Amino acid sequence: MRYRGNSGIYPIYECNWLRREGLATKNCLNFRCDLLDPVVSEEVLKVLQPAELELALAAMRELERRDEAIMHQWQMRLQRAEYEAALAEREDGKADLAIAADIWVYVLLGNGDGTFAPAMGSPIRVASPPYNDLATPLNTAIVAGDFNHSRHLGLAVAEQPNGAAYILLGKGDGTFSPSSAAFANSGGWIDTMAAADLNRDGNLDIAFQGPVALGYGDGAFSAAGNLYASGIPNGMALGDFNQDGNLDAIVASGYTAGPGSSGSGLAVSLGKGDGTFTRSPNSPIALGASIYRPSLRPTSMATESWMSR
Known about the structure:
Blueprint: E1 2-4, E2 10-15, H1 17-20, E3 29-32, H2 33-47, H3 50-89, E4 97-101, E5 104-110, E6 116-118, E7 124-125, E8 139-145, E9 154-159, E10 164-170, E11 176-185, E12 193-196, E13 205-208, E14 211-215, E15 221-226, E16 232-239, E17 248-254, E18 264-271, E19 277-279, E20 285-288, H4 303-307
Antiparallel strand pairs: 1-2, 2-3, 4-5, 5-6, 5-7, 8-9, 9-10, 10-11, 12-13, 13-14, 14-15, 16-17, 17-18, 18-19, 18-20
């Protein structure tokens, strides 16, 4: 194909084989592309039946879905790299501890030899949210994460009876300050929670054993979807359980006493990639009627599994 006309704006198809081989002094033939292309397109469409077109479109959609899943996997690898870079920035390369107990958070900085020393300002008193101010918040769970893109690890501390997580933003030196938003509201009793990017916007979100709070990337959160549970929820794990590139959740529940109890079980919530979830068809998975407070963290379901892909 070549271009002719003023400024070479008219594409033409040209056969110059005979001239190129020295068998003729002129091109074999040439004609304008705009005359041939519609005829070829019409003939192709005549051959392809609607069912075949639908198959071709379905194949294209599947390829696009796979591309999105691969891109999400790369995004998770990037998050892991950023997390490791943040650790290197603090950064003495030594593991530290954060412990939630009663109304306090204790931060212990590692010396690298198995011993620890209290961080400056530790213990940190956990405040109660203004909408439900109990004298004793009773902290039950704690997770670490960079909730404001500061490249420093912060903490989310679950207050069980207040139904909220107290957000502490890390300064990179073992000290913390409360987020300006202060709390991520769970809307219910909290026994367990996890931090991950559930809606693929690059910000860390918080999944409680029921509600989900989506992060804005500045230490503030808003309510989104809900996870499914049966019985009394006690444990939770995140992972891509149906291999669609979106994070899913499994909530482990203990039995409820009395008539009509469904026993303990695992409720599987499949993520849509936007912070909302649907119930897995085979959920809940029964564990029996005598398990009171199951915990859930097998290696294949833990956060480390999907973050390391």
